[in-house]
Amino acid sequence: MILGSQAAPSLRAYTVKVKPWVAYSLARVGIFAVIFAALLYSGIYPWLSAIIAAVISFCASYLFFGKLRDAVARDIVVRRAKPATNADTEAEDL
């Protein structure tokens, strides 16, 4: 067998959709981390950098992540609409 003559394994793309609350949380934490690092690098006190980064990341997420925030709200509504128990377990308990 010649080295490299084997067929390359097929690579499949990751197609599972990320839950909206995960994407929203990662986006907010990412914005906070970038702003916090930039403020620390500029020489601002760490506690003041954290406060400023929190305020700016809150404002940015409120202004720019409306679709993600709505998706999180819809996901919460869907989860709350599911019954906590099913009819079979309730019937068995009687």
Automatic annotation (TrEMBL):
Q: Which InterPro entries match?
A: DUF4229
* Top-level lineage group: Bacteria
TM region(s), chain numbering: 21-41, 47-65
Which Pfam family name is an example for this entry?
DUF4229
Q: Could you tell me the keywords of this UniProt record?
A: Membrane, Transmembrane, Transmembrane helix
| The protein, known as | DUF4229 domain-containing protein
Q: Which organism is it from?
A: Salinibacterium xinjiangense
